[in-house]
Give the backbone structure.
Amino acid sequence: MLMVRWGTEKTTAEKMRHRAARALIVTAVLLSSASVATGLAAGQVQENQRFSIPAGPLNKALIAFGRQSGLQVTYLGAVAAGKSSNGFTGAATRQEALATVLAGTGLVYTFPNAKTVAITSSQPGGIDASVVGATVLKKIVIEGDGADGVVATDSSAATKSDTPIVEIPQTVNVVTRKEMDDRAVTDFNSAVAYTPGIRAIDYPGGQGMPDIYLRGFRANSQIANYRDGLRNGFNAYDGDIEMYGLERLDILKGPGSALFGQTAPGGLVNATTKRPTEDTLRQIDLEYGSNDRKQLGLDFSGPIDEQGAILYRMTGLYRDSDTQIDQSPDNSLYIAPALTFSPDDATSLTLLANYQKVEKGGAEQSLPMDNTIFDNGVRIPSSLYLGIPGVTEWNAKTASLGYEFSHEFDNGWTAKQSLRYTHADIDYTSGWIWDWPTALYDGHYARIGAQERPKTTDAVVLDTNIGGDVDIGPTEHKLLFGIDYGYYNGSESRTNSTNYITVDVLDPSYDASGLTFGSPWADETIIQHQLGVYAQDQIKVENWVLSLAGRYDWVEGEVEDHLSGSETSTDDRAFTGRVGLGYQFDNGVAPYVSYSTSFQPETGTDFNGDPFEPTTGAQWEAGVKYQPTAWNGVLSASVFQITQQNVTTADPVNIGYSIQEGEVRSRGFELEGKAELTDALSLLAGYSYTDARVTKDNDNASGVSKVGSRLSSVPYHQANLWLNYTFGESVLTGLTVGGGVRYVGSSMAPMDTTTGEQVKVSGYALLDASVSYDFGMAKPDLKGLKLTLSGTNLTDEKYFTPGFYSDTVFYGNRRTVKAALSYKW
């Protein structure tokens, strides 16, 4: 990705000299190899391509050149300071275009290798060290980590390699760190709240990973949750997503199995964790807010040695907080150390560790519709806890250790390997209404039972690939070949209480002294191995981009039933792929069309005891993306249809069993725009329409078929708008204000399989805002000190989202406000 990194030189003169010396060493190395590398590069980049680089400040022209040429562009900030460019529009080689961009600036370029161009001063000896020491060192690097602003132009979520978003033949949405900070994001749901086509069910006081729907398809068991390009886990209750530890979220819409293996047909979400930085970072964050929320965050990073070959980062968080649900905490301890070792420019090894301890309430919180969205009895308060204090709870301890290794060979090809091992201990006892589906006993009493369900899991994920560029005649090929492996071992038992407690919902008190538990009704170990091989070719011919990807997977599963002593095995194999074609107009417009497939292993057996085959998914998508050359932004529009087959449905012959004759279809369109309209004003806007419903189904034992019914929790309409404005030189210098509205249309609760009825849950619109003040903008002595006030659902709208079962809902998140004080130095 095209990323601008700014190094802050505000330390001692000695550190400034070290930084200057390091910069000069790098420049000297580049210049010493220029005579050989320039000839090599020139031999590989002679083909003409289209450029549209606007006139203006030189640094912006170089950014545009880097984006359009696909080259890494490096230079010292001093060489471009105050200079302008006449730009260039037309067809030319990369060298010809760059020469025109630099005309009249007194600067020259060299190619240290075929992928990198270095911009330097034409004067002998380069730039004086004192100038460098007093100047910010700036690099423009085309390698996909985060964007400095709210606009991300590259992503690896769809291709496993850094690719301009306008060249990816599927919809990709990115939530950058800047966007999270602008909107004062606290959790995953709020992070994706302004992203079209994804719905995370609001579940205050709930436990486990977020319950998300992508283009209409539910993605549970973490099948759509990825971290640093690897599947995050295999159990939805292994942990939670701590947003403070992330750099960005990349959301791929539609099947991603062509490179990632078993995934949900609606897409996946890849979270990128914070990495060591070349520049020193020291930051402390303090928060206090609604529900007695108290949080301390620490983030420290920088070089360990003077040469900058070893970098570190330590991110930590401690939170002590209640929620709007009584007896349901939101406590978290998060520690994430990271270390990067780069012995040379071609090799990098990053070690990533993570420890997370989360405490939340264990109550299921599915509330009867009669006492929430309907006036059929007493209204249940939004704070009611449907658990048993001291008994029902969700405490998760998760630890992971892994690494990312990368090496670029002399020919420009790069080998990468990522590995992570994760261990989780889950102390989970859930609470639920005993006599469900009866709403309330005697008008205003709930009978609450409990289920003990402790779980221990271990997982290993490993991905290895190699990629590089090859030119064949008029075609440019960006190739990728890889193999990955996943292992999961999870042991869980479940034991129900033999009785219940009775709670008055209007005046709750809890007495668990007589509660007893019986014998386990489930005790099993699930083991899964997955091996996949994949290949990808991104082909460019003039303005055309053809993307081809294919993968073959072997998935072996085993379930050990410790109660019966039996074992059940599965052996699934699947080929998945993607083909996409796009055209890049010179003005930044890029239409495309694609077809992609997915597969997802299914648990259970049919009447004959044969294990179910994986469900399969296929998507057609067409759209257009626009990345303007005159201002920083990405706009996208897409239409899609996804069909999932092999869905289980009732066996019409053997009552009580299932067969795989069902089908689900989702179709719709999405619009998204993210733009930095000026240096002070940024905009986020989105809209999605999703029609997801059952298209094939058999009658169940009650004679009910789901054909034509809408998928639960999926609204037709979602829309959002957020504006952020930073005041310039005035009495309001340092003040930033932001505000937005998000709308979620009505959706359907799960169908009552006895009556065939499906209840509609009303939609809602929520207002959010954030105001921050950077004290250092007005008073240099207070540089680094920032105060932020933020709030969500400011009008305290009472809304509901569909529950896990028919005739149930969850309360939505009530109004929350918080104050955050941060200091960076």
